[in-house]
Amino acid sequence: MENGTMEDMDVLWEKVECKRYELCRNITPAKLTPYLRQCKVLDEQDEDEILNSLLLQAKANRTSRLLDILRTKGERGYVAFLESLEFYYPELYKSVTGKDPTRRFSTIVVEEGQEGLTQFLMNEVVKLQKNTKVKTLQNTELSRKTRTLEDEFKKLRLANQELQAFQQRYNKLREERNTYSDELLRVKDENYKLAMRYATLSEEKNMAVMRSRDLQLEVLHHECIHPNKNAVPCQSSIPHLAFAHLVTIQPQPLFNRPAQCGAQ
Predict the structure, then answer these.
(1) Which end of the chain has less Cβ packing within 10 Å, N or C?
(2) 256 secondary structure, DSSP code
(3) Where are the domains of the chain?
């Protein structure tokens, strides 16, 4: 690669360009920049532009800008980029080169020596340990939340069972209420019929009383006009008194009919 011409570099970068969409979609620039900084293909200004530029809001745009900057670094930028892919994204490395990762880290060895490589690997181990600790804490918190949610689910399931029992009881009570309501309507209807029958009988009774009075009046009137010749003289005033009493007799008040069935 050290004797590669510009044309060779263009051919190699064209392979990267063919995978630009896939690379921009899957790479997180912040994972690659520390290695590229240590390989001295990126400086602090480049890293700040890639990670913090307000013009590059999306992750894909930051990765695209990273590729553009690395292409300006020539062969070293290409090799360092592939080595970073080997370490962090071995599947993408194989997709770009068609080769399995070897993880030789030749660029960082040239720039920093074995001590530099060791330091870099130690830093990565520390990062992994921190990430593992964070993951462990997150898993612990998730487990706690899971247990809490399970307890709440059990409570909700019991509450749901109680609600179902109340619903069944409510349905049963509603059915009983409907039955009693129908029975009440039937009793009211029968009561109304009885009341009407009673009113009819009362009318018939009053009519009979009136008829009886009329007949008695006729009899007394007849006796007054045609007195019995054999009657005792002191008793001749009795028909007149009976007549006066019968005239004062008033029929009994009729039963007040209910206006409707529900009035009873």
Answers:
(1) N
(2) P
(3) 6-104, 114-158, 194-263
In the numeric block, which tokens belong to residue 195? 């009341």
Q: With b meaning 16 or more CB within 10 Å and e meaning fewer, what string describes 149-163? A: eeeeeeeeeeeeeee
Q: How far apart are CA 194 and CA 198, in angstroms?
A: 6
> Residue 246 has which token pair?
């019968």
- Taking the C-alpha atoms of residue 3 and residue 6, their distance in angstroms, rounded to an integer, is 10
DSSP conformation class of 252: P
Question: What confidence tier does 194 reach under pLDDT thresholds 50, 70, 90?
Answer: very high
pLDDT of residue 214: 86
pLDDT in the model for residue 161: 92
Question: In the prediction, which pLDDT does 159 show?
Answer: 92
Show the DSSP H helices in 56-105 as ranges: 59-71, 74-88, 90-97
Residue with tokens 């809001």: 57
Residue 108 DSSP symbol: H
For residue 107, the model assigns a pLDDT of 57
Encoded tokens for 91: 């599947």
Per-residue pLDDT at 25 exceeds 60: yes
Work out the pLDDT band at 85, boundaries 50, 70, 90: confident
- In one letter, which amino acid is 241? L
pLDDT at residue 130 greater than cutoff 90: no
- DSSP secondary-structure letter at 41? S
Assigned token pair, 119: 């330091």
Distance, in Å, from the CA atom of 143 to the CA atom of 190, rounded to the nearest integer, reads 70
Give residue 2's pLDDT: 46
Q: How far apart are the C-alpha atoms of 178 and 185, rounded to whole Å?
A: 11
Q: What is the CATH number that goes with domain 6-104? A: 1.10.533.10
